[in-house]
Design a protein that fits this description.
Blueprint: E1 3-6, E2 14-15, H1 16-23, H2 29-37, E3 41-43, E4 46-47, E5 53-54, E6 59-62, E7 89-93, E8 96-101, H3 113-121, E9 144-150, H4 153-164, E10 168-177, E11 183-193, E12 198-201, E13 210-222, E14 225-232, H5 239-246, E15 267-274, E16 285-287, H6 292-302
Length: 315
């Protein structure tokens, strides 16, 4: 008995061992390498090596495959969104999908934004053995705003490369306690406590700590709160929430980090700005309109002028 697979466009150029790990999810890694060592994996009729790069359209055969099962597919069936609506699409193309995530929605896991995206893409993309569309950065469940998903391997690689090179600026809007001043720079060493699921200051670069850098611009203040625009140069877990608390201005309502005043906090990923060459043909700036509740709270605290546009993301 032999299993046969066909490499799609998003499998092209990937290592054979990595493709097999995705295609045979129930087989341990040691089993994958055992198949390769024994010459039981053929690529276009020839024994393949673990590090071999598989060309698009290649025929992959797994010999003597009794007891092995291939992944049924990476995408759910078409029309699997059910009654749930996909959040607003801000832009789609170049192997990427940008959405405006509502507050309260998980990005990963069952009943998550990822599930909705896979349902939306079902039947629209060529099938792949090893590539699965997914989010390219994080947003906490309570946080709203712009998030990027990959719809092709090339799109994922391009976006991730721009992030590493510092050519994507992320701008957020938040309500914080007090007044941080017209302009401030928050620079801290942070560490993550996985048991408490919370981020703490690590002092002067203690073991495992990572640097976090955030620029803060105050757009309006009143009633003990400020509306701030934040530009993050790093992407640490809970970076804005932890740094705001460390500098004495926790997000209003963020009880996990000492905030009070509201039943929940307001933090919105307002825009992504591509500062370098970017990825043609993506616009230089993509903006996500504010959720209704956030707009209403801003208007209540600071007046109409702050909510006439999708969001005051720049001064």
């Amino acid at each position: 008995m032999a299993l046969e697979l066909s490499a799609g466009a998003d499998d092209g150029g990937r290592r054979l061992d990595r493709i097999l790990r995705k295609a045979l999810p129930d087989l341990p890694l040691s089993g994958v390498y055992r198949l390769l060592r024994k010459g039981r994996v053929l690529v276009d009729g020839k024994p393949g090596g673990a590090k071999d790069r598989v060309p698009p359209g290649a025929r992959i055969q797994i010999l003597k495959a009794a007891g092995l099962s291939v992944s049924p597919g990476l995408y759910p069936a078409a029309g699997s969104l059910g009654s749930r609506a996909l959040p607003d699409i801000l832009w789609e193309g170049a192997g990427l999908l940008f959405l405006n995530k509502p507050p309260g929605m998980l990005v990963h896991g069952p009943e998550s934004l990822e599930t909705l995206v896979l349902g939306y893409l079902a039947g629209k993309l060529p099938r792949s053995i090893s590539f699965k569309p997914g989010p390219l950065h994080r947003l906490d469940r309570p946080t709203s705003g712009i998030i990027a998903f990959s719809t092709s391997l090339e799109g994922a690689r391009n976006f991730s490369a721009l992030l590493r090179q510092g050519e994507i600026k992320k701008h957020y809007l938040a309500l914080v306690a007090g007044n941080p001043g017209e302009r401030a720079v928050w620079e801290d060493w942070l560490c993550r406590d996985r048991e408490q699921r919370k981020t703490f200051s690590a002092g002067d670069r203690e073991g495992g700590a990572k640097k976090a850098l955030t620029q803060v611009y105050t757009l309006g203040s009143g009633s003990g709160y400020s509306l701030v625009r934040l530009e993050i140069a790093t992407g640490r877990t809970h970076q804005i929430r932890a740094q705001a608390a460390l500098h004495g201005h926790p997000l209003a309502g963020d009880r996990k980090y000492g905030g009070a005043g509201f039943p929940g906090f307001f933090l919105h990923a307002g825009s992504l700005e591509f500062t370098g060459k970017g990825i043609p043909p993506i616009p230089k700036t993509l903006e996500a309109p504010l959720p209704k509740a956030f707009s209403q709270k801003i208007q209540e605290l600071f007046g109409e002028k702050f909510v006439k546009t999708p969001g005051p993301y720049s001064r």
